Amino acid sequence: MRFFTRTFVSATLAVFALTSVRSEEAAEIQSFVDYCAYRGVNLTGDHWLEASCRNDMTAIFGYNYSWIDLNYCVGNNGGQLIAYENGIYSASCTNCGIDFEMKTLMLSCRCPDLDEREAASALDLNTTIYNYNGSIGCFNQLGNKTWRRAP
């Protein structure tokens, strides 16, 4: 019985040690602008954000083409774009576009306020979205990714 207990404890410690090492090697959430935007960013259909993002394969400078529906990330609050999980901003906002400068990625739209008057609104997406191992993400939602953009 003593041999079994020592073996079980040793095996448990070995598994714990491997788990600890793997958790340190796991993907980390990274800044969108720092790890995706420099290769170009596109907004399609007023709400699909597309970019090539660096993945965790740093030995080969790995990148993935990723896209996410910003309706998972942004909402319209009385005419103002805000970071909001499942906000579905494109149901009310129109004429959306993106502008990338230095460390900001601005999403700009025309959104109705509480009186139904359209107002210009903007949100720095770098405060809302992130890169996770080559996928664009926001809140608990990860976008799709592939090795290359479709032709």
UniProtKB/TrEMBL annotation:
The keyword Disulfide bond does not apply. Keywords: Signal. The keyword Signal applies. Residues 1-23 form the signal peptide. InterPro entries: Cyanovirin-N, Cyanovirin-N_sf. Residues 31-138 form the Cyanovirin-N domain. This is Cyanovirin-N. It comes from Parathielavia hyrcaniae.
